[in-house]
Amino acid sequence: MHAQVELEAPFNWPAPPFFHAAPGDLTPNRECQVEFVTGRKMAAKLLRFEPELNFVAVQVPGQPGPEGLDLQNVRLIKLVAKNAFVHHVSAILGVGASEAEVPIEKDFVVSFRDKQKKLRGKTRGFIRNEAGVFLFLLADDPSLTTSCFIPAQQVADVQIGPMLGEVLTGKKLVSDEALSAALSKQAALRQEQLGKQLIDRAIVSAEELKQALQKQRQLPRKMRLGEILIEEGVITPEQLAEALSIQAERRGRRLGDILIDMGIVTPRLVQMVLSDKLGIPYVNVREFKIDPTVLDLLSAHLAIKDQVLPLLLIGTSLVVAVESPLSLGFSQDVRFATGLAITPVMANPEDLKLRILKEYSSYDRPHPEFEPSSARPASAQAGDGTPGDLSQVRVEELTMELAKGDALSYHPAKDKEEDLNVTDNALVRLVNKIIIEAHAQGASDIHIEANPGTSATRIRFRKDGELEDYLELRSSYRNALVSRLKIMAGLDIAEHRHGQDGKINFARFGPLPIELRVAVVPTSNGLEDIVMRILGGVEPLPIDKLGLCERDLEELKRMVTRSYGLILVCGPTGSGKTTTLHSVLHHINRPDIKIWTAEDPVEITQPGLRQVQINSRIDWTFANAMRAFLRADPDVIMVGEMRDPETTKIGIEASLTGHLVFSTLHTNSAAESVVRLLEFGMDPFNFADALIGILSQRLARKLCPKCKRSHPASENEISDLLAEYCAGSKLEPATVLAQWRTTFGNSGQILLYEAVGCKECKNGYRGRTGIYELLSSNSEVKHLIRIRGTVPQIVDAAQAGGLRLLRQDAIEKVLGGLLDLICARSVAN
């Protein structure tokens, strides 16, 4: 199957630390053996191997297509090919070691969570990360190894190399009984000593914490964790080198976590060393008294996600308790969420987790940026380093505050850090204000356009399909503005040469339960533009409110009552296709129907739908999602777009096997959609049998009902409209005019309308309405599809069945007073 080829990805199985493939050794092939937790074994070929994403796909001999593996059910995966690994001499010398100091084999024992038989043997080396454990098992020929992976979900414990006790008893240096007693005493003393020292020095009051932080600032802070641990004799240089090699494979892992996973240090030991050498205060978070207003400075979501507990506000610096103060991830998140400088201190991880759960057990705390300033301490109110109440702040005030902070940043160096925090805080609030204003004004997109030199950065909103200026910012803020939005979207702030796509969950930063799809586009002069599409917070429109004429509305309702078949909605980007599809789904959404949707992105949500977000980076495409849906007992399937022949073919096949399928196409008219799908290579007989109908649509700006002005149409204007309406059809102008006078006439006159402008609209326009043409697949249309008829032939056959073209629907909306001729002609021709 084609899916098998598409799934195959570069094969990046790691090598043991300080080893590489022997000269002439072939790259491992993909043949493997999978052992499940049930004991069943299966031979297969690896197609995709990305355990860190929980995505492993294999091809099983005799099966028609690829199969995804759930690592919850997999005990281990072992490659069939045997490989020769030899010392990587340059890597060993690079860390100041010798070959003799890197053993070629180590004993290992893996204990499984299900307490089944342990896995024992010898390994050339090992790598352990959050995904699992990689072992390199020695084969019968000790020069060869078999690569093995055990998912983290199955691992209870890993022991690499002999225990000290085994070495001592093996050399008859101590009896088993004496060793057991000594180890028990050692463990108790070590735990008691570390625990007691940490508890004895633990801080329980705000005043003690301030004094400890003052002492900490006077200590040098040049050493790294690995250097400190070696200096203290806790680890050896060889152990550090091995941990660093593992970290090089998995750059997201902290060195301390790797050393703990290797069993070399304990979390408390690391905290003790950091406290002694760096003077980082250790706080007893069980007893520390925290002002409730300080807790409100951080959202519950962020506190629980990053395991961060706010303790104290000192000026514009927020003191937070964490397990590992050397981690950078939490600091960046908290700094940009609060707009404050972050000072981390240490706490026992178990106590920290309990205190966070206790303080943030309820999620109904208001976000600090939208809480009245009187509810926060005076030192935390707007203008003093923390966000104010944005609902009462004008954007001009925030830009002035930003400029004030920028001016302060030119003060002497000793004041620079605090002054820059004022600027950062104002920028955080300004970004949130922009998003809130865009949503409140009904904008669909936010455009941020950086210009070169000293030219201002331009911010525009797209409203009712038109761009309008919102704000201009000084050029000195453009990089900070882009970086802030990248961080909110989880993008790489150091990447400026390539485009990036991401998504902002604004509920993390403000009171609106909306998401924004973010596109970062590099422009000339090394600058970047950002466009954000506002998603979510949108309810599906009732189908009666879409703006369909009475005939098209009744016909569409009849179509969607079918139990199987294909219904398409076509039009350019931004023409409201997704809104229409969700209105239709809302109309048929009942408890007795199972509806699956595959969308990119999910813009509108509604209860009862099972909605799936497409992610092409992990090969979760529209086609793969549809295959999954067909195994999930659907009644109705909605596919966001038929953008390739494979998706289209699956959609047609699904519609012929008892499913009602909806999708969209980027085409100009309903009849052109038929030709486009045939050009995709679809079987014309299957397509003709599957098709129920095609709805083509546009969006046009509506006239403001408060200020629109009418005038009687002249004879020339009526004549031009009739010619435009009847062009390319068999309609008689006299018959059409008689219908117009009956339906739209005012005392026998035909009225035309024009935009004026008032305080409730923009230049005479307010809101948008849809313009539609609905093609029903009647017998003549089906015949033309089978013989690959032309677009004019299909249009003629559809018009005989009642089709009204886009321009005809637009002209009738002009006569009804919804549109003016300028807007109608701009979208319907």
Secondary structure topology:
Blueprint: H1 2-7, E1 19-21, E2 31-36, E3 41-50, E4 55-59, E5 67-69, E6 74-83, E7 85-87, H2 89-94, E8 106-112, E9 119-129, E10 132-138, E11 145-151, E12 155-160, H3 164-170, H4 176-201, H5 206-217, H6 225-231, H7 237-249, H8 255-261, H9 267-278, H10 292-295, H11 300-306, E13 309-314, E14 317-322, H12 329-338, E15 341-346, H13 349-359, H14 395-408, H15 413-440, E16 445-449, E17 457-463, E18 466-473, H16 478-488, E19 500-505, E20 515-522, E21 528-535, H17 550-559, E22 565-570, H18 577-588, E23 595-599, E24 609-613, H19 622-630, E25 636-639, H20 645-655, E26 660-665, H21 670-679, H22 684-690, E27 691-703, E28 709-712, H23 715-726, H24 733-744, E29 751-754, E30 765-776, H25 779-786, H26 791-800, H27 806-815, H28 821-828
Parallel strand pairs: 14-15, 22-26, 22-27, 23-24, 23-25, 25-26
Antiparallel strand pairs: 1-7, 2-3, 2-6, 3-4, 4-5, 6-11, 8-9, 8-12, 9-10, 10-11, 13-14, 16-17, 16-21, 17-18, 19-20, 20-21, 27-30, 28-29
Structural overview:
The protein has 829 residues and is of the alpha+beta class. It folds into 5 domains: 2-161, no CATH class; 172-196; 220-278; 393-535, Beta-Lactamase; 543-703 and 765-804, P-loop containing nucleotide triphosphate hydrolases (Rossmann fold). The protein contains 28 helices and 30 strands. A hairpin with a 2-residue loop joins strand 9 and strand 10 (132-138). The protein is globular, with a radius of gyration of 34 Å. The chain starts with a helix and ends with a helix.
